[in-house]
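Quick note —
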Amino acid sequence: MSFYYSLRYTLDPRANTAAKDAKLLEFCKAGQIDNVTFFINSEELNAGHLTLPQSQVWLDAIAPVQKQLAAIGVTTSLNPWSTIMHSDRGPTVPAELGFDTMVDVDGKRAAIMACPADERWVDYMAASYGLFARLHPRELWLEDDFRHYNHTPLRLACFCDRHMALYAKEMGAEESRSEFVTNLLATGAPTPERNAYLTVARREMIHVAQRIEMAVHAVSPETKVALMTSFPDWHAVEGRDWPGLLDALAGTKHERIARPHLPAYNELAPNHYGRVFEQYTRTTAAYLGDNATLLPELENYMYSPFAKSKAFTQFQIETAALVGAKGILLNLFDMMGNGIVDDYGYADMLAQSKPFLSAITESRLKMSTTTGIQVLVNQNSAATLHTEFAPGGIRGGITPGAPAHTPDRVEPADLLPQETHWAELLSMFGFSTTITPWTAGTHFSGQTLAISGQFLRNLDDAGITQLLHDNRVLLDADCVQVLFDRGLTDLIHARSAAWLPVRSGHQTYMAMNGHTYAGVADPRTTLLQHIGDLLRIDYEPDAHVQIWSTAYHQDGTVVGNGISAIDGHIFILPLNTDTKYRWEAHYNNFEQELFQQLLSENGDADFLRGMPNVKLVDTPAAMLLANFGLDSYPIVRWHPGRKVHAKTATIRSRNADGYVETTVPLVQDGSDITFAVPLAGLQTMQIQLH
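Predicted structure written out below.
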């Protein structure tokens, strides 16, 4: 199975030349490109919502180049650059189209962003995509502006008169826009307004998707209708139903096909990229499922090696394997018609990676088969989380450390689920992890689960009890708060708790007394900077609770318990989330080794030892390792956490000379297994045991 390269490319109908076409064809040959996805009406060339005759101009310009590509075995896809429209930037809706525009939570009306409930816009989208389908593209994409948020200068939408009528029908009561928004963003428990907003938003986007799918497949049944996605936590705030939406686009004859966001348009520190890769890319992949065709987005905005080095670009392409991608969308050149720039040197880079990617795609990763720790997420969590600020109590969304809100209203960002923190942290600690969507009726028993934020509000009391009773579970402080709210503290033997805000004159550091990690006895980590609030939990006396760390004041006074193990199978990190830095302070060797020891001594765990920032994804078929750091490691040291009967392993990787495949013995070293292969910075490898 060849790894699929799709090059996103802008051809300006007014300025294209035969020379540019020739360079495109040569680049496709040299870079082993399989498909060219042509933009329509893109970025700097965008003229707003095009009439059908205006769209036809783009198709007429693309069609002859499509024939030239077909002659060299390269297929064609289309990427209309807008659906609702990304942002206001001058143009307005043409009179002949006549649909209304969005209104946001503050009552601002967009100049051009379409109201997704206006059937005139829905008809326009169906007609436009039916027109695009006449070129019979392999994939026909919906851009990631197909959403209710991030439409500059608007915020969350839509609250136009049409939508207000829909919300009123859903609730059975009419409210003014101001009243509805205030109640939608009210502090406290979920409101009827929040439920109405999420329900309407979910339903209308699926309706539009169905109309587009029918229009496309009426013209070109073989074309796959595909979706570009953005941030899954924000998609939760618009009620996105991932299976429902993708199935609506797929129709009855195609599989789900989507472009997960790769969160690095410019070059990031690779360890930071490793964290947001979990938050966005792997979370999206989990919602889409193992059978979806995933083509993640590689974008080097504002383009050229000044935006991102070729080494980092290549690293992003190769680590797409960690979500089981079958290929990748490559946005390597600008969207205003300059065409291919040979000086960037991308063709050789792509050709060098292709054999390695194709080899490991033969045993493509399926996230649901990953062994190790399952991080639970729920696409519906925005409907259940609380946003109240009770004394010593509940914080919804990303509020710790944020500016004070008005008494009756929070911000849209407070509705963001905070459920991927363990995935980010534990994966960078070298644990084999996966992200697992939870739906009603899901049952876990005998698993290792990691839960953060207010995920537990999606379950009833019996469900929470079963989940914590029958599994090994890691919890953060917000999860513990839910247990207190529900009266379920007997599950963790807790008798009381109090929130101590960060930088409040209480806790300043945490000490791991009685332990030696990274060669340091009784090591300390900060509770003062880049960290959330502490939930000081008091446990019942004589309960089976093991305290692994303790919180201290700067003068050495004990403030409270830190990381704790309850009955040997519930593990609590009693901190919540910093608004800006999330769990930044937890990324250190001391806590890495603490959690590795904690889980190893309480049921074992699957992780890499002594390899900070290296991700492990372990499945029965093969392991994938990816070094999200610049340091090299002379050998791979693996603590399997399970019986391993293999004696040798096939290692597939890429070095400066290209694709490398070698067989090495497994060497037992205490409870670890070592592989005598080096792992370089920014390198990805597959290990298949025999």
